[in-house]
Design a protein that fits this description.
The chain is an alpha+beta fold and about 90 residues long. About 15% of the residues are buried.
């Protein structure tokens, strides 16, 4: 059974990314899942134009036993796929 223990939002120029960290095996192992949604902002849509569609970008899972290393690995994957982070919260 997994239990969520931490969440982070990572913003790049083109998308918002979400990292969720789950405890597995009573705290001996952790699972980090990440995914992103783009475009980052809806912007202004001209009358009669098709609305912007949010699409999922850059998702994955990483397992390990060190929480901070898992979060750093997720951030690295996000930046590799979608550019440098401009804000992490």
């Amino acid at each position: 059974m997994k239990r969520e223990v931490r969440q982070e939002v990572v913003e790049t120029a083109e998308a918002f990314h979400f990292i969720k960290l789950y405890e597995q095996d009573r705290g001996r192992k952790y699972l980090a899942e990440y995914h992103g949604m783009s475009p980052r902002f809806a912007g202004v849509v001209k009358p009669g134009a098709a609305p912007l569609t949010m699409v999922e970008v850059g998702s994955g899972k990483i397992e390990g036993d060190d929480v901070e290393k898992l979060i750093a690995a997720c951030r690295a994957e996000i930046e590799k796929e979608n550019g440098t982070s401009i804000e992490i919260g």
